[in-house]
Amino acid sequence: MGIFGGKNRIQSQPKATTLIAEGCTVNGHIQVANALQIDGHVEGQIEASKLLRISRSGYVVGEITTERLIINGTFEGTCHAKFVEILSSGHITGTIYSDNLTIEPGGKFNGNSSDNKVEKAEKESELIDDKVAIMDNLKLG
User: Fold this and answer.
1) Which residues contact 73 (CB under 8 A, 6 or more apart)?
2) Torsion of the alpha carbons at 118, 124, 69 and 45, rounded to the nearest 10
3) What is the Cα–Cα distance from 117 to 115, expressed in whole angstroms?
4) What pLDDT does 110 receive?
5) CB 46 within 8 A of CB 63
6) What is the pTM of this model?
7) Least buried of 10, 40, 92, 106, by fewest C-beta within 10 Å?
8) Do residues 19 and 37 lie in contact, with contact meaning Cβ atoms separated by under 8 Å?
9) What is the DSSP letter of 75?
10) What confidence score (pLDDT) does residue 101 get?
11) How far is it, in rounded angstroms, from Cα 134 to Cα 139?
12) Nearest to 94 by CA among 115, 64, 69
């Protein structure tokens, strides 16, 4: 049997954590189905459906969307998460949209926080304003 067949075939591990190692720099849009751990530097948009962990050496600038965010490193930007935990070495500068925010002693947060309902209301208000503007343009045209 060939090297790619039979019992020796390695199966994909769908619940594995994706790792961006210390010393790595990534710019752009990252999307993972489960968990992501950042030990390096990331700039851009990150979507991790289950968990995003920024370790002590990790540094992220941009927008994060995840179910649970655990920060022991540095994050600057906007975060959308059900649960946010800032650990003792964690630093966040920016805006957090979350229903559950925990900050351990030593953890730092500089910015604004709102629950997810406020964010949804703001988006709906912007959508209504856009529709009104379109209707006004149609009437003028």
Assistant:
1) 38, 54, 55, 56, 57, 58, 59, 60, 89, 90, 91
2) -140
3) 5
4) 97
5) yes
6) 0.74
7) 10
8) yes
9) E
10) 94
11) 9
12) 64
Length of the chain as a residue count: 141
What is the dihedral sign for C-alpha 92, 95, 97, 100? positive
Cα(128)–Cα(12) distance, integer angstroms: 45
Instruction: Tell me phi and psi for residue 57, to 5 degrees.
Output: -85, -5
Give residue 104's Cα distance to chain centre: 20
**DSSP letter assigned to residue 105:** T
The two structure tokens encoding residue 112? 């604004």
Provide the residue-wise pLDDT of the chain in tens; the chain has 141 residues.
455 555 555 555 557 889 999 999 999 999 999 899 999 999 999 999 999 999 999 999 999 999 999 999 999 999 999 999 999 999 999 999 999 999 999 999 999 999 876 555 555 556 666 666 666 666 665
